[in-house]
Design brief:
Blueprint lengths: L1 E3 L4 E4 L2 H27 L5 H24 L14 E4 L8 H12 L1 H7 L3 H15 L4 H18 L6 E12 L6 E12 L4 E11 L11 H11 L7 H11 L3 E15 L9 H9 L8 E19 L3 E9 L6 H4 L3 E9 H10 L8 E5 L5 E3 L1
Helix pairs in contact: 1-2, 2-6, 4-6, 5-6, 9-11
Length: about 375
C-alpha cells in the first residue's frame, strides 16, 4: 500500500489486499442489516427507522460493489496506469470522499461508456480466445470487463452518493386544532468529506400545512435544500433542529437523529492507537475477524412547545428541545448519545479479557456463526 502521511490517505495497490478489503466490507454491510434488526427488537429503532436504515445500508453495499468492480484489477499490469482505491486509514477506514465524488461523476457518463464498450459476453469470448490461442493471461481484456461491470453497477443506481437528498415516509395522521396534522419520517444521508464516513439523518416532523409535505411543490424543495445544506458534521443537532423550526412555521421537528457509521478499524488496513489496537493485535488478524466497526447515534427530542406571535394576529409553535446535562447535552447539543461497537467473536473475547477503561458503557454487538448478532 502507498501511504501519504500528510492526510492519512493510503492507496491499496496490492491485488490480494484490495480483494480482502472489499470482502471485509461486503461482510460488514451484511452484518449491519442484522445489527439494525437487533436494535429494532430491543426497541432502540422503530420499524420505519429500521426500514429506512436498511435502504441506506443497501445503498452503501452497492457503492462498495461498484468500487470493487472499478478496482478489480488493482496491482495488475493492465497496460495503463489506473491507480488504486484510496482509503482514510487513520480516522475512518472507509474510502475517501473523493472516491465517491469521482464515482458520482462517472455515473453521469455511464450510458455513454456502456454504449461504446463491448458486451460482457463479447469480452468473455475475447478472454477465452486469448487463453486458448495465445496461451496468455488476458489481463487487458479482464480490465475492460471490470470497467464494463463498474459502469453497469453505476447505471443501475440506488448507490450511496456524496449527497443523498431527503425523502419522506408517512407515519400517521394526527388530530389537532384546525386542519388535521400529518406525521412524517424525513431521512437523508451524506458522505462526510471531513471524516470520510457515511452519516444518516432521521427527523420526525409534524406537518400542519394545508398540503401534505411531499406533495407540496412549494415547501418540499425548500425543505430538501435546507436539510442538505445543514448536513455538516460540525453542526450540533440543536442548531439544525432550531434552524429548521424557525424557517418552516408549519413544520414541527419532534425528533432528530444522526447516525455515524464508522470508523472501521482493522489491523491490516488502518492505523489505530489505544485499546482498540491492542484488541485487534490480540485477535490475531485472521481474515474475516480482523475488524471492529463503531456506530454512534445522536438524538435530540422536543420536550414541549411554546407559542410565539407571528405578524399582527398570527401565532406559531416553536419547539423547546431537551438537553440532558448528565450526558453533556448542553455541550453536544443533543438529548442523548449512544455509542456501539460491532465486532466478530474473537476480537470481542480479547476486548472482554483486556477490559480497557472507557469501553464499559459502549454497547457491543457481536457477530457470531451464521451471521447471528448478539448484544452485550
Amino acid at each position: 500500500m502507498q501511504q501519504d502521511d500528510l492526510n492519512d490517505r493510503v492507496g491499496i495497490t496490492d491485488f490480494h489486499a484490495s480483494r480482502r478489503y472489499f470482502r471485509k466490507f461486503e461482510a460488514i454491510m451484511a452484518h449491519l442489516a442484522h445489527v439494525a434488526a437487533a436494535m429494532r427488537a430491543e426497541r432502540t429503532l422503530s420499524e420505519p427507522e429500521t426500514e429506512v436504515l436498511a435502504r441506506h445500508i443497501s445503498a452503501l453495499t452497492f457503492t462498495f460493489r461498484a468500487l470493487s468492480m472499478k478496482y478489480l484489477l488493482a496491482g495488475r499490469d493492465t497496460g495503463r496506469f489506473f491507480g488504486s482505491l484510496t482509503i482514510d486509514n487513520h480516522e475512518s477506514g472507509f474510502p475517501t470522499a473523493q472516491e465517491l465524488m469521482v464515482m458520482a461523476n462517472d455515473a453521469g457518463q455511464a450510458g455513454k461508456h456502456l454504449a461504446s464498450m463491448p458486451s460482457v459476453e463479447a469480452l468473455k469470448r475475447q478472454m477465452l480466445d486469448q487463453i486458448l490461442s495465445d496461451h496468455a493471461v488476458p489481463t487487458k481484456t479482464q480490465f475492460a470487463l471490470s470497467q464494463r461491470l463498474y459502469y453497469e453497477e453505476l447505471a443501475r443506481g440506488d448507490l450511496f452518493w456524496p449527497r443523498n437528498d431527503p425523502d419522506a415516509v408517512w407515519l400517521e395522521n394526527l388530530g389537532g386544532k384546525g386542519a388535521q396534522r400529518r406525521r412524517y419520517l424525513l431521512h437523508w444521508s451524506v458522505y462526510d468529506s471531513g471524516t470520510n464516513l457515511p452519516v444518516i439523518y432521521l427527523m420526525e416532523v409534524e406537518d400542519s400545512g394545508r398540503t401534505g409535505l411531499p406533495k407540496d411543490q412549494s415547501r418540499w424543495p425548500q425543505v430538501q435544500a435546507h436539510l442538505v445544506a445543514q448536513s455538516l458534521g460540525g453542526l450540533k443537532l440543536l442548531t439544525i433542529a432550531q434552524g429548521f423550526d424557525q424557517d418552516f412555521d408549519d413544520l414541527h421537528p419532534k425528533r432528530l437523529r444522526r447516525i455515524h457509521i464508522g470508523p472501521m478499524y482493522s489491523h491490516a488496513f488502518t492505523r489505530q492507537s489505544g485499546p482498540i489496537r491492542d484488541v485487534l493485535e490480540g485477535a490475531g488478524g485472521a481474515e474475516g475477524e480482523d475488524w471492529a466497526l463503531a456506530w454512534t447515534s445522536e438524538e435530540l427530542l422536543s420536550e414541549r412547545v411554546k407559542t410565539e406571535k407571528s405578524g399582527w394576529f398570527g401565532q406559531v409553535e416553536r419547539e423547546i428541545f431537551a438537553l440532558d446535562p448528565l450526558s453533556g447535552g448542553a455541550e453536544t447539543g443533543a438529548t442523548s448519545q449512544d455509542r456501539a461497537l460491532i465486532l466478530p467473536a474473537r476480537p470481542f473475547q480479547v476486548l472482554s479479557e483486556l477490559n480497557p477503561p472507557g469501553f464499559a458503557r459502549i454497547r457491543k454487538f457481536v457477530v457470531g456463526a451464521g451471521d447471528r448478532v448478539l448484544r452485550y
